[in-house]
Amino acid sequence: MAGWVDPENRVVAAVTALAAELADPVRLTALQLLAAEGPHTSSQLADAIGVTASRLGNHLARLREKELVTAERAGRHSVYRATPGLGEVLAALAHYARGADAVGPPDRPPSPADTAHTCYDHAAGRLGVTAFATLVERGALRPPDGSGDEVALGPDRDALAELGVDPAAFAPGRRKLATACLDRTHRLPHLGGVLGKAVLDAFLARGLVARVPDSRVLTVLAPDELARLLPGF
Predict the structure, then answer these.
(1) What integer pLDDT is reported at residue 103 of this predicted model?
(2) What are the φ and ψ backbone dihedral angles of 166, each rounded to 5 degrees?
(3) Cβ-based burial of 128 (10 A; exposed 0-12, middle 13-18, buried ≥19)
(4) Which of 115, 196, 207, 226 could form a disulfide linkage to 191, CB 3.0–4.6 angstroms apart?
(5) How far is Cα 162 from Cα 127, in angstroms, rounded to an integer?
(6) Across all residues in the chain, what is the average pLDDT?
(7) Segments of the chain with pLDDT less than 50
(8) Which residues sit opposite 122 in a β-bridge?
C-alpha cells in the first residue's frame, strides 16, 4: 500500500511537482497566458502580468528548469512557449475554480463587470468565456494549442450561425479572424479578433446585451436567451 503515496512514484512525483509550480500566482499566470495566447517574449509577459522583468525572469528560469516552458532566441529576445498539453490541465483547473466559486461562500457577489464587459471590441467576463467555450465544444472553433493566439475555425459552423455570425462574410485582412484572449477574471480564453467583434455586435444588435455609457460594462438584457444560446451562462 505504501506505493500509493511513494513520492518517487513517477505519476505522484510529476503531479506534485506541477502543483508546486502552479502554487505561485506569477508562474501560474505566465503559464496560462502562454497556453491560451501562444508564445510571448519575457517583456511581453512582464507587461501583461504587471511585474518587473527581473522578478519574472526568476520564475521563467524555474519553469524552464522544470520543463514547463521552452525558450528560443529571436534576435535580442527569448520567446517562451508552454509545454504541449499543459493548456488542457490549466483549463481544467480554471473550470474547477469556477465551479468551486459557484458552490462555495464567495468573497463578494459577482459584479456586472464579472458577468459581461468589453475587452477592446469583443466580449469578456463570463459572457465572453462561455461564448468561446460553447463555440469550441460545438466544433465551430478549435481549442488553443499554445502555438499562437490565432484560433482556427472548426468543421461545424452552426453554433456561429446561431449567434448571428457568418465567418464567410469576412474578407481576409490584416487583422486575425479569431484569437484566444485570456480573461483576467475567469482565467479562461474568450474570443477576440474579427469574429470576437462580430459576436459582440450580434449580441448588441439582437438586444441581448447593451453598453453602459462611459464604461466597459455590458448589461445583460436577455439572460434566458443567452443561456439558451450559451449553455452554462
Answers:
(1) 45
(2) -115, 105
(3) buried
(4) 196
(5) 16
(6) 91
(7) 102-105
(8) 119
Distance between CA 232 and CA 160 in Å, rounded? 17
d(C-alpha 110, C-alpha 102), whole Å = 10
Residue 33 has a pLDDT of 96
- The CA radius of gyration of the chain, in Å to the nearest whole number, is 19
Backbone φ, ψ for residue 191 (5° rounding): -90, 125
The stretches of 104-187 forming alpha helices (DSSP H) are: 112-115, 125-137, 158-163
Would you say the C-alpha torsion 148, 154, 159, 163 has a positive or negative sign? positive
The 3-state DSSP class for residue 71 equals strand
Q: Are strands 209-211 and 218-220 parallel, antiparallel or unpaired?
A: antiparallel
Please, how many CA atoms are within 13 Å of residue 205, restricted to the half-sphere of its CB? 9
In angstroms, the CA 30 to CA 84 distance is 15
Residues in Cβ contact with 29 at an 8 Å cutoff, skipping those fewer than 6 apart:
49
Question: Contact at 8 Å (CB) between 220 and 157?
Answer: no
Joined together, the cell numbers standing for residue 84 give 504541449
Show Cβ contacts of residue 140 under 8 Å, excluding neighbours closer than 6 positions. 153, 154, 156, 157, 158, 159, 160
Q: How far apart are CA 212 and CA 189, in angstroms?
A: 23
**Would you state the pLDDT for residue 206?**
97
Closest residue by Cα to residue 193 from 151, 137, 135:
151
Q: What torsion, rounded to 10 degrees, do the Cα atoms 23, 111, 149, 122 define?
A: 180
Q: pLDDT value at position 148?
A: 86
